[in-house]
Amino acid sequence: MEIKKTEQATVVKHTGSHYLVSNLPEWSLITCVLRGKLRLKEGVTTNPVAVGDRVLYESEDEGRGVITEILPRKNYIIRKSTNLSRQAHIIASNLDQVFLIVTLNFPQTKFEFIDRFLVTCEAYKVPVKIIINKIDLFTKEYDQSLEMFRHIYNESAGYQIIEVSGLKSINIESVRSECRGKLSLFSGISGVGKSSLINSLDPMLALKTGEISDYHKQGKHTTTFYEIHPLSSGGFIIDTPGIKGFGLIEMAKEELSHYFPEMFRLLDHCRFAPCTHTHEPGCAVKAAVEDGSITEERYVSYLSMLEGEDKYR
User: Fold this and answer.
1) Cα separation of 32 and 77, whole Å?
2) Is the pLDDT of residue 212 over 70?
3) Per-residue pLDDT tens for 270-279?
4) Domains of the chain and CATH, by start
5) Quick check: 100 and 188 in contact, CB under 8 A?
6) C-alpha to C-alpha distance for 238 and 194, rounded to whole angstroms
7) pLDDT in tens, 8-42
8) How many CB atoms lie within 10 A of CB 190?
9) At what angle do helices 111-123 and 296-307 cross, to 10 degrees?
10) Considering the entire predicted model, what is its pTM?
């Protein structure tokens, strides 16, 4: 009886029933299929194997293999699926960092989306940074919006913000430096210029980009699969299709405030524990909202998440 060789690799692309894997940081692609038992095993997600997963596979002839085991994930990004027959979709796993790409206009990224994405990163222990793209389109009338965004997410919440233009290659070296030696996920709503930004980081990738015909509408999808790309300057990036909504999953309401860094810093100062930060007397979070050290925008997002996620699914 032939004994098949078992090897370890990272899933770099999923297309239909086939997976491309490579033993990163080496870049040698092998096409694999998923063993039937694994397909049936995990029923709570739409994808039992995600891009970024470390897997074991058995080699077969002609550079093909069969995935036999999914190794434990150190972290992952997950959201409620739009497919109502399943609970959730895992966007990617085993990430060194995530870049949430936002635009303040052309199109506008809503605070609701940003906050749900950031909360998920905090809950699943994924380091996250915010990139504001298309700064070449900013005019004086948008200066106030930019200052407000910086106050909400950098000064108050503490997230690193990098301001760039993928189209004009402004401040791209800062992003390129952050990516060296790491596996980084790039995500955001449709139309924020993820593919243009990635092409600026490495023009050899030549990812397909799209246009926005109406500045008040979101762009169309140009990325159709979750996929890892090697950067010639070092590191690997995951490009993702644009996301319209981001529903939370597997998150207890009494723990939700733990995933807002500016609230988490104050939890020990509330009179009651646990505190929902809604009606309790002696709440340090509510006091911080009143004095402006926690922004009203983030507090409103928090209250919205407490109410439930179905409306944002």
Assistant:
1) 23
2) no
3) 999 889 999 9
4) 6-71 (2.40.50.140), 78-239 (3.40.50.300), 253-312 (1.10.40.50)
5) yes
6) 10
7) 999 999 887 899 999 999 999 999 999 876 655 55
8) 19
9) 70
10) 0.88
